Amino acid sequence: MKITDMNLDKAIRKIAFPAIFSFLFTVLYEIVDAFWLGRLSYSSVFAAMGAASFITWSLYSLINIASAGVNSLVARKVGEDDKEGYQRVAAEGYSVASIIGLLITFIMTLVYRKIFVVIGLEGQVLEDACKYFSVMNAGFLIIYFYNINTMVFNAHGDTKTGMKIQAFMLLFNCVIDPLFILGWGPFPKLGIKGAAIATIFSQTLGFTVGLVLLSRRKYIAKRAFKRFFKYIYAKKIVKIGFPVALVNWVFAMVYPALTSLITKTGNIDALGALNICHKLEGIPYFISMGFSVTAAALAGQYIGAGKSDMSIKAVHRTVLYNSAFLFVISVVFYFIPEKILSLITSDPKIIFEGARYLKIIAIFELFLGFEVVYEGGFTGISKTHIPMFVSIPLTLLRIPLAYYLCFTLNMSIPGIWWAISFTTFLKGLIIYIMFKHEQNTIGVRS
């Protein structure tokens, strides 16, 4: 049965829950790597991993130039029952991703070491960061292709297959991590470089399995690749995807600036607390991302099927589902933050700072869901430029607002936490208002 012919609530659950688990598996990747890297005899590896991962994740965001557009347009073509159309969009998505991936790899090969030096890395930390990033940089093309695979599955409403592939990749990574990191058996001990090699091998396996399944299910076709660089949809793909990529890239760039403000206060415990709390906040964020994927897929397919009213209704209903989850998490963050943090660390100073962060964030956590899921809705209706004009200025506002609250008003660290929380509230509220305005322009009532 087509997604657009299903009961709406059933369709939301069918798409959302596998997507949520897929995103949560991403967190487990980092935990597995950290576990095996912790078995090495030197501590600088985590500083190197953190620095390299910051650059890596900022570059990951650029794949949205291709993947967000593929998600939106494939979903619409599925709704239109245009088989040749969605196969062609997917093929051009891989083509756009190949250009982006190769360009980034070429540029970063020339400058990545200089970037690490500029941000202050030296000695063993610098060398380890370069070892890790050099491998990841060589594998960006595979990572980008894997991401396109996932978006094609998601656009068809088939998030369960993506979840299974992600789980398989995670298990494979668990097995080969100690082989390459610690040198078990006949393998050489490669340390942090081994972690990167294991990641690329896992991504390659996931991409290959996904490509086979996409072909078997006729989501992609060989004939669509015959004119690999003869574009029909590429311009639309980039037009939809570029705003999403820019939003995510700016978000990644702002946090180092906030970290520098924390450093200026001299409160090192707050830095440790922020690191832990980011991992905890990953839970509501990735849940919201799962529902964002759902909103994009449903909105796109309903638009393609000529059911604009249902596309809007689906997005609002998806937000309600997400809000139910985030409300529970907000209550937990606000009322028992110390108990949660004590499961991770026994340091009383870090627990104190982390509890202040979680309580302040919890107040507006629902609006994180508004921001993320309605952005998915805008992706589904191919109007990603609207949330971009809201999200980027307000994300950048965090820096001067945090400085003003922290130093000018002498609120210290809580001022930085309030800057993050309040701008989250503003982004969620304004993006919601803009989505309501957009539905009114097409004459739809929710």
Please describe what this structure looks like:
It is found in: Cell membrane. One of its GO terms (biological process) is monoatomic ion transport. It is a multi-pass membrane protein. Keywords: Antiport, Cell membrane, Ion transport, Membrane, Transmembrane, Transmembrane helix, Transport. The chain has 446 residues and is an all-alpha fold. It has two domains: 226 residues, no CATH class; 204 residues, no CATH class. The chain contains 17 helices and no strands. It is globular, with a radius of gyration of 22 Å. The two termini are 25 Å apart.
Provide a quick synopsis of the model:
83% of the residues lie in helices and 0% in strands. The protein is mainly α. Helix 3 (64-79) crosses helix 10 (234-265) and helix 11 (268-304) runs antiparallel to helix 12.
Question: In percent terms, what proportion of residues is strand?
Answer: under 5%
What would you report as the Rg, rounded to the nearest angstrom? Answer: 22 Å
Mean pLDDT: 90
How far apart, in Å, are the first and last alpha carbons? 25 Å
**How many structural units, i.e. domains?**
2
Instruction: List SSEs in N-to-C order.
Output: HHHHHHHHHHHHHHHHH
How many separate helices?
Answer: 17
Query: How many strands, which pairing sense, and closed or not: the largest β-sheet?
Result: none
